[in-house]
């Protein structure tokens, strides 16, 4: 009589092991995608805040350079970096030293959010 053939043991991964590995990979890929989207959003927000800071600094510099600063414009529109910005300024006289305290707020046009605030002092040339 002939003997039955020996069962050959094959090596490899079971279906369960492959499914667990795919689940782990999918979870990691989702986490990496989420983190990269967060970084992209934060980079855009940082760019907006930087441009808003430049707009505020430009506004303060313009007021300092004017021989008699035009203080009647509490709000105006400015374009910078292919965006439209709303610049709001509040000017109050100071007593010691005599001058003007200027507070500037900058935000994107069409939004109520203030992206940057700056405070500066300019000489009051009317006194």
TrEMBL record:
PROSITE patterns: PROKAR_NTER_METHYL (PS00409)
One of the GO BP terms on file: protein secretion by the type II secretion system
Cellular component GO terms, alphabetical: plasma membrane; type II protein secretion system complex
TM annotation in the entry: 12-33
Topology within the bilayer: Single-pass membrane protein
Entry comment on modification after translation: Cleaved by prepilin peptidase.
Keyword Membrane: yes
InterPro entries assigned to the protein according to its UniProt record, in alphabetical order: N_methyl_site, Pilin-like, T2SS_GspI_C, T2SS_protein-GspI
Intracellular or extracellular location(s): Cell inner membrane
Alphabetized UniProt keyword annotations: Cell inner membrane, Cell membrane, Membrane, Methylation, Transmembrane, Transmembrane helix
Pfam families: N_methyl, T2SSI
Type II secretion system protein GspI C-terminal domain mapped to chain residues: 47-122
Subunit (UniProt): Type II secretion is composed of four main components: the outer membrane complex, the inner membrane complex, the cytoplasmic secretion ATPase and the periplasm-spanning pseudopilus.
Family: Belongs to the GSP I family.
Function, in words: Component of the type II secretion system required for the energy-dependent secretion of extracellular factors such as proteases and toxins from the periplasm.
Protein name: Type II secretion system protein I
Organism in which the protein naturally occurs: Pseudomonas umsongensis
